[in-house]
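so my prof wants the structure for this chain in the tokens format not the other one, which i didnt know existed until like an hour ago. anyway here's the sequence
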Amino acid sequence: MAVTAAPHPRSSPLVLIIRWGLPLIFVVFGVVMLVMSHGHLSGVQDNAAESNPFTQTTLSHDSVLSTLGVGSLVVAVMIWMIGWMMRLNSSEHVDRDKEDEARAYFKAHGHWPDEA
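here's what i got, hopefully its the right format
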């Protein structure tokens, strides 16, 4: 007996917007922020004494924009990965149902469905 994959149901427009549109918005925003910051992290020091977090430091406009850009890209990846993990979890449910059907067949007939 051949195992066939169940067809995927069509996703609603809201699901598609959340699954692909929301991460895309964050990616576009992140890229725009990185371009606006000229790809420069100002205020980064090599000397540990100068980069003491307890001293008064000023943030430049470019540093804030680049931080927003990188953070936005990280959020986009997180949203996409959460959706991917949820889809992965729902596909496991189908496998469990197939296994339960095979066990019921074994219980009724004394052999597995793929055995002749």
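also thought this was worth mentioning. The longest helix spans residues 61-109.
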